[in-house]
Amino acid sequence: MQLELIPAILVKTREDLVERIELVKKYVKTVQIDIMDNEFVPNKTIGLESLRDLPKGVQYEFHWMVHNPEFWIKQIKGNHLHIVHIEAEMNWENVKLVVRENGGRLGIALNPETSVNYIFPYEKDVKYVLAMTVRPGFDGQSYIKEVEKKIEKIKLRYPEFDIEVDGGINIETIGGAVKAGANKLVAASAIFSKPDIGKAITELKKAAEASS
């Protein structure tokens, strides 16, 4: 599976969202936008009104840390990846329908404490799993290394799946995630806190490739 570094954007205003997209889009293929509703997680980010007419030139994936994601996804047209949490309140059949009608793709996310067994009901509908290596809600948290064992189990059971890892990814932790089986590597602070974003992305990519 091809490795890909994906910047994650967790912001509260459209201005910050667009600024961060513009900062990274010439270095990467995909940008992840984190959306939180202050119900599924104790934080609130940008709303649907901020997600329209996003900058061109990059693919988008939406990490829905919300309850009832089908109501949010309904507003987002296009071939985007929508990642929903299996711990969230939702109607899975409606989620699938809305994503299909809007021309998108679907993935699932698991919190650090959620067992791989919870993937089983969804395994026929997705080929993309996000393993959280922090508890969702805030950026800048420390990487939970124990989740690597979960990533290994996912890779063993679903070798054809894309496996994304999200949370605490930096130069020191990215190698362990890759060795465990992740091929989609999401980073936020390790990119946006650096003075030279292009250099930060290049160094993360090199560290990932060195461990593959």
Output the keywords.
21% strand, 8-stranded parallel beta barrel, 212 residues, alpha/beta, TIM Barrel
Task: Write up this protein.
- The chain is α/β, with parallel strands linked by helices.
- The chain has one domain (4-210): TIM Barrel (Alpha-Beta Barrel).
- Helix content is 29%, strand content 21%.
- It is built from seven helices and eight strands.
- It has helices at 14-24, 69-73, 92-101, 147-157, 174-180, 189-192, 197-210; strands at 4-9, 30-36, 59-65, 81-85, 105-110, 128-132, 162-166, 184-187.
- The protein has an eight-stranded parallel β-barrel, surrounded by five helices.
- α1 links the parallel β1 and β2 (30-36).
- The N and C termini lie close together (10 Å).
- 39% of the residues are buried.
- The mean pLDDT is 96.
